[in-house]
Structure formats: structure tokens, C-alpha cells
Automatic annotation (TrEMBL):
<feature type="domain" description="Amidohydrolase-related">
    <location>
        <begin position="52"/>
        <end position="443"/>
    </location>
</feature>
<dbReference type="InterPro" id="IPR050378">
    <property type="entry name" value="Metallo-dep_Hydrolases_sf"/>
</dbReference>
<feature type="modified residue" description="N6-carboxylysine">
    <location>
        <position position="153"/>
    </location>
</feature>
<keyword id="KW-0479">Metal-binding</keyword>
<dbReference type="GO" id="GO:0005829">
    <property type="term" value="C:cytosol"/>
</dbReference>
<dbReference type="InterPro" id="IPR011059">
    <property type="entry name" value="Metal-dep_hydrolase_composite"/>
</dbReference>
<dbReference type="GO" id="GO:0004157">
    <property type="term" value="F:dihydropyrimidinase activity"/>
</dbReference>
<dbReference type="InterPro" id="IPR011778">
    <property type="entry name" value="Hydantoinase/dihydroPyrase"/>
</dbReference>
<comment type="similarity">
    <text>Belongs to the metallo-dependent hydrolases superfamily. Hydantoinase/dihydropyrimidinase family.</text>
</comment>
<protein>
    <submittedName>
        <fullName>Dihydropyrimidinase</fullName>
        <ecNumber>3.5.2.2</ecNumber>
    </submittedName>
</protein>
<keyword id="KW-0378">Hydrolase</keyword>
<dbReference type="InterPro" id="IPR006680">
    <property type="entry name" value="Amidohydro-rel"/>
</dbReference>
<dbReference type="InterPro" id="IPR032466">
    <property type="entry name" value="Metal_Hydrolase"/>
</dbReference>
<dbReference type="Pfam" id="PF01979">
    <property type="entry name" value="Amidohydro_1"/>
</dbReference>
<dbReference type="GO" id="GO:0046872">
    <property type="term" value="F:metal ion binding"/>
</dbReference>
């Protein structure tokens, strides 16, 4: 038998295709054996009664991104990845944001420098392209994709990020030529502006009106436009953070026509509603739930489950985008107090994504363990080109979440590790919780504690497609 460094013994090993009782043999950070019994390893973890899941991969998180004048994101790479580890994740994919008028290459270098030596889990970077200048389209983007930055996000809204349709088409065209995947934030800029200005004229400026200013029609229209542009250019796209039936049906329609349209959804769209944006006593507490697209209603939750069970969605990500609530640099900026328009968009969720999907999905009988693993890990690795990640199989990195499927837990801010000062899921009860997280054969989190200094996580270089 091959020499092992570590054996994980007695767990039910879950992959996208099956669940089997097996011991997992690990050497040099890789899985080298799966067998009924693996004895004699110098270190053993007793995992009887637990599930061994592929470590969670969260392919949509925002870390240390500037978000407007005077606004600071609540997480740096150390705190965000500590929270990720505690939540059963071994790999996250944040964005290197290009500010308009600046170099995309420089953005990638500066985010890498922020992450270097500070991460508890592995990191692979996407980019955000906000400036479709001739230099970006002709030089920087092609060369970065050749360097392995094979996915990037574009926005159809936000003053400082929105691309025109012509810009979108040009960016799609570069992606097609270079073999990249474009992630698209689908919400129509002009319609949102029109609605926002009308609401402000009427004095409807509380956080709740954020949801009113970005109804599902606005998301559906943009999704349809993105799909049409992708079809024109013949490029694969990923429609991110789909919030409800309208956009989901656009994706389903595109997929039924054979278009290469992938889709992602997030915990907020199966649990929260626009009603959460209404102030409940606390000053502007609705701001805690301001994210885009906004959470909808119960019927939307059902529509998202339809998409999750029918295979319309390939990935379930957090869209972690943390701001402190009780802070003038977070949700309660002086400007944010005057109108929802200025409340920074985004909610924290990197640590709670897996328990919410497991509990609402597997424990409540809506999805199988196999579908859970696909949505939380395997598909992220496959779609974003992360070799040796996202499964428990010989030759793969030993990235594993040991999971107690029966553990009841109540989500509370005080048990979380993120830099935000609240969780949108305060008091939310789940069944199923991570017991420990193993990154390339090393335990990085156990029983709610993050173990080891930051720096165990690597910044991964992806292969060009
Ligand atoms: O409100 C959100 N989701 N903020 C994060 C940025 C984005 O659009 O994903
Ligand atoms: Zn977005
Ligand atoms: Zn696919
Ligand atoms: Zn996002």
C-alpha cells in the first residue's frame, strides 16, 4: 500500500455521482487512495457518522473592493477566507476590479498583492472589466486570458461599472476569441435610473425602495439582452445572481435553444424577501438587506428551487459583498441616510452559504446530496477551469468538508468569522453544519475555530482553456 500522511476514516464520501462509505488516504496534499479500510497512516481523523463533501467552492465573492467614496468593505482577504474556511469552503473566487480609466493588468496585480500570504483557503481570481477601451480590448484582456484569467464579470448597471451594449458586444467578442467565460450582472441601467429618479421625486427614499427601483422586469430585460448579445457573438456566458422566475425563465429558454448560457443563484434568493428591506424598528435596518438584484418574495423562492432542481442553475454562490451596518463607512453612510440610491449594495454570506443550501435543499428533501455537491463545489471547478478541485477522487487535492448532516444550529452573528457586524440570517435555523474543513490535507477549521495562520491558502493560476 502507498504510504499515507493522513487517513480520514469512516465517513460517507459524497461526490456529484455517488455516496459511498470509504476511507480517504492522503499524501502530499492529494487524495491517493479510497478504500473500505486504510490502516496504518501516521495521522487519522475519525469521521464516522459524518459526510465527507468536496470542500465548498464559492465562485462569486467580493473581497476588499472599493465601493464608492468613503465606503470600505468589511472583509480583507484574511477575514473573508477565515470565514470561508469556517463555513466548509476550501476555495473562493473574488474579483480584481478594474476602475474605469485604469489598467486591468494593474488591477489584477494589486488584488493579488492584497491576497498574497493572507488567505486561509485557496483563491482564484476573476476580473471585473469596467472599461472597454481599445487598449483593454486589444491588449490587456487577451493577454490576461492567455495568462489564465479565463473568467471576468461585466455589469449592465451601476454608474461606475455599466457597459453600453456596444461595449458588451466587443467584450463578448474578445472572450469568444480568447476562450473566456463572461459573467454578466443583468439589470438594466436606464430603467433603474428612471425608476429611482421617480421614487426620489415622490420622497420614497427608505431602503425598501431599493427593491422597488429594481423589479424583476428590469432583471429579465437585461438577461434577455445579454443572452441575445451572447448568441450574436456565439460566446458562453454565466448569468450571475439570478433572483427569481423572470430571469430564470429567460435562462431556461436560452438553454432549451442550445445556447451556452449558464446561471448562478445565491442563498438570498431562496430565503430573503423584499419585505426584509422594510425598517423594523432599528434605524434603517432594511439597509442590511440591500443587495442587487434585491431579494423578491416566496413565489420567487419556489421558482429558484424549480431552476435548482431542473438544472437551469449550475452554481450556487454567496455573492459575499460585506459592509458593516452600524458604520458611516458601511451601510449607514451620510449619503446612504438620504436615499437608498447611496446605500452600498451587497450582503455578507461567505460562511453561511453551504449550511443554508444543505438545510433548505438536502435536509428538507428538495435536492439530493449529489446535486448539493454539484451546486456547491463540483460545477464551480468544472466551469471555471480549476483542475484537481471540486471532487473527492484519487488525484484530486485533498480539499474536504467533514459535515454533520444532523447538527441543528441557529445562525448568529456571534458565531461567524466575517468582518461584517451582522448577518442577514440572524436567528435562521439550519440542519446540517460543517465539523471541520481540510485544505490540501491540513485541517484549517474545526468546531467553529479557524486553525493556523493565514497563508495556507494559495493563489491558483488557471490554465488557459
Ligand atoms: O449587491 C450586490 N450584489 N453587490 C455585489 C456586487 C454585485 O453586483 O455582485
Ligand atoms: Zn453583480
Ligand atoms: Zn455547462
Ligand atoms: Zn457580486
Amino acid at each position: 500500500m502507498t504510504e499515507l500522511d493522513l487517513a480520514i476514516r469512516g465517513a460517507t464520501v459524497v461526490t456529484a455521482s455517488e455516496s459511498v462509505r470509504a476511507d480517504i488516504g492522503i499524501r502530499g496534499g492529494r487524495i491517493v487512495a479510497l478504500a473500505d479500510t486504510l490502516e496504518g497512516a501516521p495521522r487519522e481523523i475519525d469521521a464516522r457518522g459524518l459526510l465527507a463533501l468536496p470542500g465548498g467552492i464559492d465562485s462569486h465573492v467580493h473581497i476588499a473592493q472599493p465601493s464608492g467614496p468613503g465606503i470600505v468593505m468589511a472583509d480583507d482577504f484574511a477575514s473573508a477566507t477565515a470565514a470561508a474556511a469556517a463555513g466548509g469552503n476550501t476555495l473562493v473566487m473574488p474579483f480584481a476590479l478594474q476602475a474605469r480609466g485604469t489598467s486591468l493588468r494593474a488591477a489584477v496585480e494589486s488584488y493579488r498583492a492584497l491576497a498574497e500570504g493572507r488567505c486561509h483557503v485557496d483563491v482564484a481570481m476573476h476580473m471585473i472589466v469596467s472599461d472597454a477601451s481599445p487598449n483593454v480590448l486589444g491588449q490587456e484582456l487577451p493577454s490576461l486570458v492567455k495568462d489564465g484569467y479565463t473568467s471576468f464579470k461585466v455589469f449592465m448597471t451601476y454608474d461606475d461599472l455599466v457597459l453600453s451594449d456596444r461595449d458588451l458586444l466587443q467584450v463578448f467578442d474578445v472572450a469568444r476569441r480568447e476562450g473566456a467565460l463572461v459573467m454578466v450582472h443583468c439589470e438594466g441601467y436606464d430603467a433603474i435610473r428612471f425608476l429611482t429618479e421617480r421614487l426620489e421625486r415622490e420622497g420614497r427614499t427608505a431602503p425598501y425602495y431599493h427593491a422597488v427601483s429594481r423589479p424583476e422586469i428590469v432583471e429579465r430585460e437585461a438577461a434577455h439582452r445579454a443572452i441575445s448579445h451572447a448568441e450574436l457573438v456565439d460566446v458562453p456566458i454565466m448569468i450571475v445572481h439570478v433572483s427569481g422566475r423572470e430571469a430564470m425563465e429567460q435562462v431556461r429558454w436560452a438553454q432549451s435553444r442550445g445556447l451556452k448560457v449558464h446561471a448562478e443563484t445565491c442563498p438570498q434568493y431562496i430565503t430573503l424577501t423584499a419585505e426584509d428591506l422594510r425598517d423594523a424598528g432599528l434605524e434603517m435596518s432594511g439597509a442590511k438587506y440591500v443587495c442587487s438584484p434585491p431579494p423578491r418574495d416566496r413565489d420567487s423562492h419556489a421558482a429558484i428551487w424549480e431552476g435548482l432542481t431542473q438544472g437551469v442553475f449550475q452554481t450556487f454562490s454567496s455573492d459575499h459583498c460585506p459592509f458593516r451596518y452600524d458604520s458611516p463607512e458601511g451601510k449607514l453612510t451620510p449619503r446612504g441616510r438620504t436615499s437608498f440610491r447611496w446605500v452600498p449594495n451587497g450582503i455578507p454570506g461567505i460562511e453561511t452559504r453551504l449550511p443554508i443550501l444543505f438545510s433548505e435543499g438536502v435536509s428538507k428533501g428538495r435536492i439530493s446530496l449529489q446535486r448539493f455537491v454539484e451546486l456547491s463545489s463540483t460545477n464551480h471547478a468544472r466551469i471555471y477551469g480549476l483542475a484537481r478541485k471540486g471532487s473527492i477522487a484519487v488525484g484530486y487535492d485533498a480539499d474536504i468538508a467533514l459535515w454533520d448532516p444532523n447538527r441543528r444550529e441557529t445562525i448568529r452573528q456571534e458565531i461567524l468569522h466575517h468582518g461584517a457586524d451582522y448577518t442577514p440570517w440572524e436567528g435562521f435555523e439550519v440542519v446540517g453544519w460543517p465539523v471541520s474543513t481540510i485544505l490540501r490535507g491540513e485541517v484549517i477549521a474545526e468546531a467553529g475555530r479557524v486553525i493556523g495562520a493565514p497563508g495556507q491558502g494559495r493563489i491558483l493560476d488557471r490554465q488557459p482553456r
